[in-house]
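Reagents: none. Just compute today. aldehyde dehydrogenase (NAD(+)).
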Amino acid sequence: MSAVLNGLYINGVWRAGHDVLDVINPATEATLAQVNLGDASAVSEAVGAASAAFPDWSKSTGRDRAALLRKIAEGVSAQREHLMHLQSSNNGKPLFEAGIDVDDVIATFEYYAGVADEMDASRDRPVALPTEDFSARVRREPCGVVGLIVPWNFPMVTTAWKLAPALAAGCCVVLKPSEVTPLAELELARIIASVGLPAGVFNLVCGTGLAVGAPMAADPRIAKISFTGSNAVGVQVMQRAAETVKGVSLELGGKSSLLVLADADLDLAVELACGGGFFNAGQMCSATSRVLVADELADEFLTRLQARAESIRVADPFAEDVEMGALVNRAQYQRVQGHIERGVQAGAKLLCGGGRPVDLPHGYFIRPTVFTEVPLDSALWNEEIFGPVLCVRSFTSEAEAVALANDSEFGLVASVLSSNLEAAERVANALQVGLVWINAPQVIFPQTAWGGYKQSSIGRELGPWGLQAFQEIKHVIRAV
Ligand code: NAD
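Predicted 3D structure written out:
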């Protein structure tokens, strides 16, 4: 094991923190590295450095910021293999999934470089008024120092979705990665630190939620917190932020549906059900963990789904033919196993999976799991499980399918499968979610928004909406 990694980057300097944390490889349960963590005093210093850097950085040109964002994208590209390796080792996801993550990070920084390039020309826009006595312009300005708090399921990706637009907007940043998965985030931070950003524009404080995240949410010098994580913590962040009337963007949980209409392609339906349930070992806010199948297809669909789920190769993230890796840590493994056990107790029928693969005695592995006959009032049907667990239910009408999908406190995403595109579009319009895929896997583009309805989100990330989350609007009205 190598030396303890510095977990603080404040005002352009890498530093050690106070407590030391073991970083675990979830596939082997071995300690991968140690990182030292910050506390409230480190947060205070980081916010101080960001506040001092803000006046100059906020006046920099979009073109200059674009050049730096492009350099970050290039730096990530150059380190692609290394970052993939760190991501898989620390998170447990297969190497090919880590490659998708790194490519997403590159695409996000490139996209916001393009957005920043165009900002100089569009920063001030005239506003049409119903009089010639006055003229008006609207101006977008960076909202200030922002705090970014991210989870462990897509390290680097969630960071990029916040950091790239924040820097493009001209904000200064304090970033807190998840203490569970700091390794790839630290390497990403090293790349960011190498591109020539002025000291204090980008600061990193590794640490636990209570020692670092909570003081960030409370600090009156932070104008906005952008948080991705669980609903329970999102509520706490919002409550703390309320004391200083801070802006919050929240990306929280989901309980999303995949709807297989009567004329769907069954092979595609099975592949997309497995993708929506088992990618990243199901640890996705966007997991389509409710699968709703037209009654007439249900028996054949279940037969094929069971066969495919049982054939999925669960293995070490670096194994050549791996399809699904490990869950992120012991706590998450136990949490998912608890959900499975309570589901069985609640009367749901376990079709396949439900435990660890026999050939993997170590590591936090769970076989792809499928339940049927899941009671509508059970936790299994209603709560986010965040593991490789699908619940399948049949429906007899389009209206019933839509009602089942919408009957949730969440509203993040949905997938619709049908060869009748008119029906698929009609269903997409009726779903109370932020993103619908039709006959498509869960592709995400930096140009399209990420976020949902109800308790899944406040605000949207990506696209122009992701930038606006870090901007204030100012109108200037002048007598002519
Ligand atoms: P979590 O809420 O436990 O932690 C998220 C982050 O918040 C971590 O960095 C953690 O250290 C920090 N934190 C913990 N307590 C805090 C506090 N009191 N104040 C401030 N910060 C605190 O979530 P997790 O277990 O890391 O991630 C899983 C959750 O994230 C799931 O619920 C999932 O749905 C959600 N998620 C949502 C999206 C989305 O885009 N909607 C994406 C990924 C994950």
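The chain has a mean pLDDT of 98.
Action item: order primers for follow-up constructs.
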